[in-house]
Automatic annotation (TrEMBL):
Domain of life: Bacteria
InterPro entries recorded: UDP_GlcNAc_Epimerase_2_dom, WecB-like
Pfam families: Epimerase_2
SUPFAM superfamilies recorded: UDP-Glycosyltransferase/glycogen phosphorylase (SSF53756)
Top EC group: isomerase
Record keywords, A-Z: Isomerase
Protein's recorded name: UDP-N-acetylglucosamine 2-epimerase (Non-hydrolyzing)
Domain (UDP-N-acetylglucosamine 2-epimerase): residue spans on this chain: 32-367
GO MF annotations, alphabetized: UDP-N-acetylglucosamine 2-epimerase activity
Known EC number: 5.1.3.14
Residue spans crossing the bilayer: none
Source species: Tepidiphilus baoligensis
Length: 380
């Protein structure tokens, strides 16, 4: 059934977020919303990430207003978490009656926000739409495919993401390629860090003389043989170069139960998750980054640091093509260690696949103009 969307002159945007990368992505978009006349934003924090160093620190450092709603939902199985979020977000939507719901990325908070809104016929805008790993075993892949399907506007970060959506049959007028909001953030904060000071000094790290690692994906943390391969590869690497590893709480909890924990702690600099500026410093001045994070893969490229991706596939295929990123499926420790050794000192091609650093501006300007837009006639 076709239904026209009409907006009030002043639009209320309700943003649902809950996980670390979403705070970072939303920060630039929220600044743009705050400076656009006629737009207001309500923040709903689901609570998916709740530790101070996984949540609060980003709101403070990135100058974001505090969440208007904190739903305090975390832990449990995927279904239980998503279900509880769905119910709680729906209550907020009924109360706030926003014109648009804005969601980011591919977490349970993304899907719950989008689904609650779509069922209430509130149009959904998905930032970071169209990414695909083509691996349905990943919870993130399920979340992003379903969120795209029920979104009205699909803001894509790359040409590859737009092409994925076109291939899946989405009409061209739903796909708005704006670039990557993480690039906007990196441009803003990347120039603010200097080498050798602060955290680097505390850890005794010198410029281009250490490896930075992050691991948090379920496909690695929940598969002991994969986690073992990563741990062994990082310990072996630490014999030649310092390795620093800010541990995601879930990863720490799993690792602490393993037989390798004490060897790991002895050879690798294990630290708690760090704030955004500390992370930017660690990334920018690293010799190499080894990660299974989506955001960190891109940040490695933004700071021209070679990256070894500890996964079987990546959504950021353009970085592999350009020679900045090497896929190292963590099945055999020796192969991961070799991938790290080979990538050290390498440099990819000069490419610019993530837009011009104005993705947030483009998203907000698009939303601001929706009244006059042909998109307001789209069927939902
Ligand atoms: N990050 C951070 N501190 C850390 C680890 C990561 O600030 O200790 C930032 C990182 O710079 C990037 C984002 O968190 O901007 C990536 O989040 P994460 O790896 O949790 O999720 P993904 O990007 O894989 O969805």
């Amino acid at each position: 059934m076709s239904q026209a969307i009409s907006f009030r002159p002043d639009k209320k945007i309700l943003t649902v977020l809950g996980a670390r990368p979403q705070f970072i992505k939303a920060s630039v978009v929220s600044h743009a919303i705050a400076t656009t006349p006629g737009l207001t934003e309500v923040f709903v924090h689901t609570g998916q990430h709740f530790d101070a160093n996984m949540s609060e620190v980003f709101f403070a450092e990135l100058g974001m207003k505090k969440p208007d709603y904190f739903l305090d939902i975390h832990g449990g199985t995927h279904g239980a978490m998503t279900g509880r979020m769905l119910e709680a977000v729906e209550q907020v939507l009924l109360q706030e009656k926003p014109d648009i719901v804005l969601v980011y990325g591919d977490t349970n908070s993304t899907l719950a926000g989008a689904l609650a809104a779509a069922k209430l016929h509130i149009p959904v805008a998905h930032v970071e739409a169209g990414l695909r790993s083509f691996n349905m075993a990943m919870p993130e892949e399920i979340n992003r495919i379903l969120t795209d399907r029920i979104s009205q506007w699909l803001f894509t970060p790359t040409r590859a993401a737009s092409a994925n959506l076109q291939r899946e049959g989405y009409p061209a007028d739903k796909i708005i390629e704006v670039g990557d909001v993480m690039y906007d953030v990196a441009l803003h904060y990347g120039s603010r860090v200097t080498p050798g000071t602060g955290l680097m000094a505390q850890l005794g790290l010198t410029e281009k003389n250490y490896v930075l690692a992050t691991v948090h994906r379920q496909e690695n943390t929940d598969h002991p043989e994969r986690l073992t391969a990563i741990v062994e590869a990082l310990i072996a690497t630490a014999h030649t170069l310092p390795v620093v590893w800010p541990l995601h709480p879930r990863t720490r909890a799993v690792l602490q139960q393993t037989a390798q924990w004490s060897a790991l702690a002895q050879h690798v600099k294990l630290i708690d998750p760090v704030g955004y500026l500390d992370m930017v410093q660690l990334e920018k001045f690293a010799a190499l980054i080894a990660t299974d994070s989506g955001g960190v893969q891109k940040e490695a490229f933004f700071y021209k640091v070679p990256c070894v991706t500890l996964r079987d596939e990546t959504e950021w295929v353009e970085l592999v093509d350009a020679g900045w990123n090497w896929l190292a499926p963590p099945t055999i420790a020796g192969a991961v260690q070799a991938a790290i050794a080979n990538a050290l000192g390498s440099r990819g091609q000069e490419v610019q696949p993530y837009g011009a650093g104005d993705a947030a501006e483009k998203i907000v300007s698009f939303i601001g103009k929706l009244d006059q837009s042909p998109f307001s006639e789209n069927p939902r």
